[in-house]
Each structure stands twice: as structure tokens, then as C-alpha cells.
Design goal:
heterodimer, A: 284 residues, mainly alpha, two-stranded antiparallel ribbon, 2 strands, 75% helix, 2% strand, B: 312 residues, 73% helix, 0% strand, globular
């Protein structure tokens, strides 16, 4: 994008100093804090035989926790797509009193410690809470069961979709919408055929980010879930439970499964983001 | 926020919804924000003050609460500067130079964000715990890391690892190398170039990254919970202390400590918003400059800076 000084061939001249020292420091620090400890996890699993590993990661209680963790995370990420798009739309395309406040509040789930979110949502939704007391007569229970898990995960994932869609909507060219309107499209048709394709990659990225975050989430969920084995026990809690019983090998096996899944999701998110960049790059 | 003049149109004719649609969309968004954001926030403070200010103050003056606050502050005071130095170094290497494996390195820097906090805690237990790699050696030398402060700091450093780096990398990439190259050609040393040219350009991104990193460092629960051992008055951070009080049915005390953390979150959001408004104003000022002076922050910086903070 900017012309760089070139000496010969493709190698740009390194006019700026500090490459070796900053890169060296980056790699050393990365290895010490992240890579070596993560490799400890991989090596620990090698102390298990394949059968032991398989038994540890497919026990009935563990399987039930996968179903809950993935199901609840998927549901929560879906809700976040719908309401995230709504919030992003309202924040970019509408003017109203309190807009800046809402815009700032959207990041609250990033800033509020998860344990605080957990006890606060529990206090709201428990049978005697502000919200729970009106739901209980109807037989609706949102705390201490899988519903609570979904609600906590909706809270945790809320900012992702809003913050990925918002900049794309801001940069979307209004000329295209005007052209569609001139050609006789209704507003809804314009949204479906013109606006939606532009923001679809961002929506998908936001979904993947919220989903990835929800799968690993621990702090907010354990307070509201009730943590009943086979019913409302999430996978990270299984790891903690095994650790508390000094079953290090079992905890490690389940942790490796989670690590592999999060690594795959990270690659998916990276691919989605580069797709999104290409998409928006070709649009402007 | 979008500073490009060609997208700003005086009329919205034909490209906006009917008023009733618009109003119901705003209404629906308002209800959602009220239920999912405002209500939980308000609940923290009301529950904390349920038995009045007296009970609130008493809860906060507990020695265990104090030691939790102290430990949280110490942890953040170590973790944030470490990740700040790392973030600046990584951003300098990645944004200012081309080298093989750069994309891979950037992905690795992001890795801690996608690892579950519980797994983050577990890996340090496997390294430094009694049965871990270095466990026997550490025991022989009387050094305790797991179930002690060093383990808490390490776990916190891990979970807050990418915050500052990923804020700075896209920002510095968007700004390019021209100004730094000019400074070097004019005879400035590397440090002078960094302090007087780079730092002023990235200061908003830097502040942004530091406050987000700090909020996460002080609020981290899962990773710290695994390595802490929950020794009251010794290895309990504020979020862990909240958990203990809550499980002991000391609701007012739990929410009192939680209210401090919620206050921290509000301050974080406030600083973050101020930084964003400042940044937007700066971009607008640059966009308003006469065209003969090329703006040093190109349009890409505006879009690059905003979504960078996302994977928190």
C-alpha cells in the first residue's frame, strides 16, 4: 500500500532497527508462557494408553457435558447473531437518545469479570430474583438447569457479533442500496439481496467467535448451571472436577480434546476473517 | 466513525425503513440491552446494598477481602507490564518487518484467547504442580508456584497474553513505516524513533489495550481458580473471594466485593469510550486536512483499530 525502499530483488531494506531483538524477545516469551506449557499438556497425554485416553474422553458423564457445552454454545451464538445484528443495525443506522451509552454498554461482557456476571445473573433468575419471581408461577425455570447455561453464554458472547458487524455496516456503500431502491426493490428485498450478502461474512465470523468463547467459558456458567452431573455440567467443569480428585491424566485427556477443538475454531475464525477482508476489499 | 466523505449522503430517500419499523427495531434492541446488560449490572449493586451501607462497608473491611484486593492488584501490576512490553515488542517485529512465518506467529500470539481458561490453569499445574515436570525439583528447592502467588500471576499472564499485542499489530501495520524511516534517515536512534515517532502514533491503541488487559487480569476466574488452591487470606483473588463468599451464602459480602469489580468494569468502559472518541476525533481532524499533506493514519486504521479488540 505504501512504497517501501527496495535494494535488490524482493528483500526490502531494513532501515528500521530492532528486528532481531524484538522478534527474539517475542518468540522467547511466547515459548515460555504459551508454547512450552501447552506442550506439557500434549506430553502428559502420552502417558496414557490409547484405550485409557479413549475411556477418559468418552465416559458417559463427559459425553453428556459435550452435548451440553456444544448445544448451549451453539444456541447462545445463534441468539447472539440475531440480536447482535439488530444491535449493530440500530447503532449504525438509527439515531436515538442514549445511543452512545448503549454503544459503550455492549462491551460490558468483556469488561465485567465472569464470576460477577455469574452470580448476578443467578440472583436475577433464581426463583426469588427480580426476573425469576415473575417466571416461576408460569413454571419457567431459567436458573440451575441448562437454560441458565444458555443465558450465561448469551451474555458472554453478546459483544462479538455486534463488534464484527458494526464496522462492516459503517463501511457499506449506501449507493448500492439507493440503486436497488431506484430499480424498484422494496426495503426488505434490498436488505435480503444487497445488505445481507455484504455482512454475511462478518455475521459468520461473529458467530464463530461467540461460539468459541462460549465453549471454553467457565466462570459465569458454574454459578447459574446448578452443575448436576449428566444434566447441567459443562466440559470445563469436568476438567476441574477431575483435577480436584487428583485425576491429572483424565483431566489432561479432556483438556486435550478441548484444546484441539479450540485450535480448529481459531483456524476457522482466521479463514473467515480473511474471507471477510477479501469480501469488503472487493466491495470498495 | 466512517470518515470517508463519499459515503456520507445528505438524504436517505429510498434507503431507510418506514418509521414504525425503525422505532420497533430500536425498541427491541432497547429491551434486549435492558434485560441482558443493564439488569445484571444493576443487580450487583442492589444485592450489595440489600442490607444497607453499614453491612456493605463491614463486608469490605474484612481482612480476607483486603488480602484478596491486595493480591488482585499485585497480580495485575505484574501481569499487565509484562504483557505491555511483550505487546510492543511483538507489534514492532510483526508490523514493521516482513519475515517468513509471520502469519503463523500472529496466530500463535492469538492462541491464548481461544484456550479455555480452565485449560490455561491446568497447563501450569502440569508444569509446576507436585507431580508436574518441574514439581520434584521445585519441591527440593522449597519453591512453591502452584497454590501460591507465582502460579496465579503466571495463569493471569497467559490469559491476558494477546490483549496489547493484537491491539497494536493492526494499528502499526496500517500506519506503515514511512515516518519511522524518515526519522532514522534524519539520524535518530532506534529508541528516539520509537519514543518520539511511533509511541505518539500508537498511544490510543496502547491505552486501549492496557485497560482491557487490566480488566481481564483483575477479573480472571477460571484459570486462576485452577492454580490458586483457594487458601483464604493468602491465594484468593477478588473473583475467587466472591465465589467463596457466595458459596457460603454470604450474599451481601459476595456482592459487595463483586460491586468493586463491577465498578472496575464501568471505569474500563468509560476510559475505552473516551479513547474511542479521541481516536475518532483525531481521524476526523486528519480527514479534514488539506489534501497536499498526506494523512499519516490512513482510512484503514479506523477500521483496523475497531475490530481488533474483539477476541477478548
Amino acid at each position: 500500500m505504501y512504497p517501501t525502499f527496495k535494494l535488490s530483488g524482493h528483500q526490502p531494506a531494513r532501515v528500521l532497527p530492532g528486528f532481531n531483538i524484538t522478534l527474539g524477545f517475542t518468540i522467547t516469551y511466547l515459548s515460555l508462557i504459551v508454547l512450552i506449557p501447552l506442550s506439557a499438556l500434549i506430553f502428559k497425554t502420552f502417558s496414557l494408553s490409547l484405550e485409557q485416553f479413549w475411556a477418559a474422553v468418552t465416559g458417559p458423564r463427559v459425553m453428556a457435558s459435550y452435548r451440553l457445552t456444544f448445544g448451549a454454545s451453539f444456541l447462545a451464538a445463534l441468539v447472539n447473531v440475531v440480536f447482535g445484528l439488530l444491535l449493530a443495525w440500530v447503532l449504525v443506522r438509527c439515531d436515538f437518545v442514549g445511543k452512545k451509552l448503549i454503544d459503550a454498554l455492549v462491551d460490558l461482557p468483556f469488561a465485567l469479570p465472569t464470576a460477577v456476571a455469574g452470580i448476578s445473573l443467578t440472583a436475577l433468575l433464581a426463583g426469588n430474583g427480580w426476573v425469576g419471581q415473575y417466571l416461576e408461577p408460569w413454571g419457567i425455570q431459567l436458573a440451575f438447569n441448562p437454560n441458565g447455561v444458555v443465558i450465561a453464554l448469551i451474555f458472554i458472547g453478546l459483544p462479538f457479533v455486534v463488534r464484527t458487524v458494526q464496522p462492516v455496516l459503517e463501511d457499506a456503500e449506501k449507493e448500492l442500496e439507493e440503486a436497488a431502491a431506484c430499480l424498484g426493490a422494496t426495503r426488505w428485498q434490498t436488505f435480503q439481496r444487497v445488505i445481507f450478502p455484504t455482512i454475511a461474512p462478518a455475521l459468520l465470523t461473529g458467530f464463530a467467535m461467540a461460539f468459541a468463547r462460549a465453549i471454553g467459558e467457565y466462570g459465569s456458567v458454574i454459578f447459574i448451571a446448578g452443575n448436576m452431573p449428566m444434566v447441567s455440567e459443562i466440559t470445563p467443569l469436568i476438567i476441574v472436577g477431575k483435577l480436584e480428585q487428583y485425576d491429572y491424566a483424565g483431566a489432561t485427556a479432556v483438556a486435550v480434546v478441548m484444546l484441539v477443538i479450540s485450535f480448529v475454531l481459531l483456524l476457522v475464525i482466521n479463514a473467515l476473517q480473511s474471507w471477510q477482508r477479501r469480501q469488503t476489499g472487493s466491495a470498495t | 466513525m466512517s470518515g470517508s466523505p463519499q459515503t456520507a449522503h445528505p438524504t436517505d430517500a429510498g434507503t431507510s425503513e418506514p418509521a414504525w419499523v425503525r422505532r420497533s427495531l430500536i425498541g427491541l434492541a432497547g429491551v434486549f440491552v435492558f434485560l441482558f446488560l443493564l439488569l445484571p449490572l444493576a443487580a450487583v449493586f442492589t444485592e450489595a446494598l440489600r442490607k444497607g451501607w453499614q453491612a456493605y462497608w463491614t463486608a469490605l473491611q474484612e481482612p480476607d477481602a483486603w488480602s484478596a484486593i491486595r493480591l488482585t492488584l499485585i497480580t495485575a501490576l505484574i501481569a499487565v507490564p509484562l504483557n505491555l512490553v511483550f505487546g510492543v515488542a511483538a507489534a514492532w517485529a510483526i508490523a514493521k518487518f516482513e519475515f517468513k512465518g509471520k502469519a503463523f506467529l500472529t496466530t500463535l500470539v492469538d492462541l491464548p484467547f481461544s484456550v479455555s481458561p480452565v485449560v490455561a490453569g491446568l497447563i501450569y499445574v502440569l508444569m509446576f504442580g507436585a507431580q508436574g515436570w518441574f514439581g520434584p525439583w521445585l519441591q527440593a528447592h522449597g519453591i512453591q508456584i502452584i497454590f501460591a502467588v507465582p502460579g496465579i500471576v503466571l495463569a493471569t499472564v497467559f490469559v491476558t497474553f494477546p490483549f496489547i499485542a493484537r491491539e497494536l499489530i493492526p494499528l502499526m501495520q496500517a500506519q506503515g513505516n514511512d515516518e519511522e524511516q524518515a526519522a532514522i534517515v534524519l539520524g535518530a536512534t532506534g529508541w528516539q524513533t520509537f519514543w518520539h515517532v511511533t509511541l505518539p502514533n500508537i498511544r490510543w491503541g496502547l491505552i486501549y489495550g492496557v485497560i482491557l488487559c487490566n480488566a481481564r487480569a483483575m477479573g480472571e476466574f477460571g484459570a486462576v481458580s485452577v492454580v490458586s488452591g483457594h487458601i483464604r487470606g493468602e491465594t484468593n483473588t477478588m473473583p475467587l473471594h466472591v465465589e467463596i463468599l457466595y458459596n457460603e451464602y454470604q450474599s451481601v459480602a459476595a456482592f459487595a466485593v463483586a460491586s468493586l469489580l463491577a465498578g472496575l468494569a464501568l471505569v474500563t468502559l468509560l476510559i475505552k469510550s473516551v479513547v474511542e472518541w479521541q481516536h475518532a476525533r483525531q481521524l476526523k481532524a486528519l480527514a479534514d486536512l488539506p489534501p497536499e499533506r498526506p494523512p499519516s493514519i490512513p482510512q484503514a486504521a479506523a477500521t483496523a483499530a475497531a475490530p481488533a479488540s474483539l477476541k477478548a
